[in-house]
Design brief:
alpha/beta; 6 helices; 208 residues; 7 strands
């Protein structure tokens, strides 16, 4: 009996979630990201990790950035391209697992991770690559659910290992200078799956 491939299972899960005509997490950008616009460079190249259906990537493109969105789900990236076309902007999309994605070195002015909940070792490896991938002065914006979110029923993973403490996030970005940090409750209304009072980590850092 063959053991199911966990990556293929993950791809199948997200493709099924994004198969509906409407957008699972809405079409508007994450509110925290939008509020953080002043911390982000005005121009340059932006990378969106585990971007889903493209809501944040399209918003960044509307801000004047050249955006690449990466996600494991083909269905999500197709909807991201459709959303960009409707909004009159262009984005590049790549379908791949973040475990295998190489963001390069000195390639991006902005890298954004919004609710990209990864296993701890994978997350640390991805973040380390992203620090190297930023240009000097480049910014990484991390937004994700915190351990206190577990059991709330308002969105996010149901596994404690996928909900890092903000101290863990800070340690993984030790090579960046923190420009904004927050940890606490937040009302979130994003489509069908992020609705209600949640508990989030926000960490934004700039590369020296």
């Amino acid at each position: 009996m063959n053991t199911p491939d966990p990556i293929e299972q993950l791809r199948k899960f997200w493709n099924e979630r994004y198969s509906a005509q409407d957008y699972a997490y809405g079409e508007a950008p994450n509110g925290i990201l939008a509020e953080s616009r002043a911390h982000l460079p005005a121009t340059g190249r932006a990378l969106c990790l585990a971007e889903g259906e493209g809501r944040n990537a399209v918003w960044l493109a509307e801000q004047g950035l050249r955006v690449t969105a990466v996600d494991i789900a083909e269905q999500g990236m197709a909807k991201a391209r459709a959303l960009a076309e409707r909004r009159g902007v262009q984005i590049e999309t790549r379908v791949c697992d973040l475990r295998e994605f190489d963001p390069g070195v000195g390639a991006w002015e902005v890298i954004v991770s919004v609710f990209a909940h990864l296993p701890p070792q994978v997350r640390a490896e991805v973040h380390a690559r992203c620090v190297q991938a930023l240009v000097p002065g480049g910014v990484f914006a991390y937004i994700g659910y915190a351990p206190e979110q577990l059991g709330r029923g308002t969105g996010g993973p149901k596994e404690a290992a996928l909900l890092p403490d903000i101290a863990d996030i800070e340690a993984e970005f030790a090579g960046l200078t923190c420009v904004h940090r927050a940890h606490g409750p937040r009302h979130i209304s994003e489509g069908h799956f992020h609705t209600g009072d949640g508990w989030v980590n926000v960490w934004i850092g700039r590369k020296p």
